[in-house]
Specification:
alpha+beta; Four Helix Bundle (Hemerythrin (Met), subunit A); Nonspecific Lipid-transfer Protein, Chain A; five-stranded mixed β-sheet; Maleylpyruvate isomerase family mycothiol-dependent enzyme; MDMPI_C-term_domain; Maleyloyr_isom
Length: 255
């Protein structure tokens, strides 16, 4: 998977790619995959997320200050132009990367799921930016390309963070996924990325590698990322086994 320095660099690179796709865009259009937000609000969401992580790392907080996260307070962002938001967006990404590179990645500050904050937030902000870059390009109808190494890390982070979060956050909705013989295999066809999600116990357990599962989803790694993040249907990907379990799994596991 990506190392710490690469993730710090990707925060800047992915933000720059997002910004470049906005050239000439009407920021008032709705974003189909984040239907409560306009393009204007989505861009501000990404920038505020970067600034929140930056604040936590620079202030070396011991606990995550959720009340200082402005990434959900977006109603006031209307009528802005691309020239208003792009410099601000790029500045925030560069500042966050700089802050992360200035600390020990294993420093136990702003811990996320018990993991060292710098390392965890470098990964979270990389893939937060990746996914919302896709939202932007999809809304504008422009091409989206993603390096397979980055996509593999995005998929890995989803199994490590989004998956357990869904079971913790929505226990009643995710409980029907658990049971004897239940498992999901995600198999990338264009790089070495395979994950088996074992659903036979009280909570999901993820293993890397090739195993027989109740259902397998195969395809290019970027398409797998879009499927698990509910950005695209599984149509066109290969499904082997219990398709109903896969549909239920993708419907109930959200982030």
């Amino acid at each position: 998977m990506l190392d710490y320095e690469r993730r710090c660099a990707e925060i800047i690179d992915q933000t720059a790619l997002l910004a470049s796709s906005l050239d000439g865009a009407d920021l008032s259009i709705a974003v189909p995959t984040t239907p409560d937000w306009t393009l204007n609000q989505l861009v501000r969401h990404v920038g505020h997320a970067h600034r929140w992580a930056d604040l936590m790392i620079r202030e070396r907080v011991t606990e995550i200050p959720y009340d200082r996260n402005g990434a959900q307070q977006l109603a006031s962002y209307v009528g802005e132009q691309v020239s208003d938001v792009v410099p601000w967006l790029l500045e925030g990404a560069a500042s966050l990367s700089e802050a992360l590179l200035a600390v020990d990645p294993d420093l136990m500050i702003a811990t996320l799921g018990g993991h060292p904050g710098p390392r965890a937030w470098s990964r979270r902000m990389t893939h937060e930016t990746v996914m919302h870059r896709w939202d932007v390009t999809n809304a504008l109808g422009v091409a989206f390309d993603l390096d397979a190494e980055v996509a593999r890390d995005t998929l890995s982070e989803w199994t490590a963070l989004a998956l357990p979060y869904a079971f913790m956050r929505w226990p009643a909705e995710t409980a029907p996924l658990l049971g004897p013989g239940r498992s999901v295999h995600l198999h990338a066809t264009d790089c070495e990325a395979e994950f088996v999600i074992d659903l036979t116990g009280a909570a999901p357990v993820v293993r890397q590698g090739h195993e027989k599962a109740a259902v397998a989803l195969r395809g290019p790694v970027v398409e797998l990322v879009l499927a698990v993040y509910r950005r695209r249907p599984v149509d066109g990907l290969e499904v082997f086994g219990d398709a109903e379990l896969l549909d239920l799994f993708l419907d109930r596991v959200r982030f």
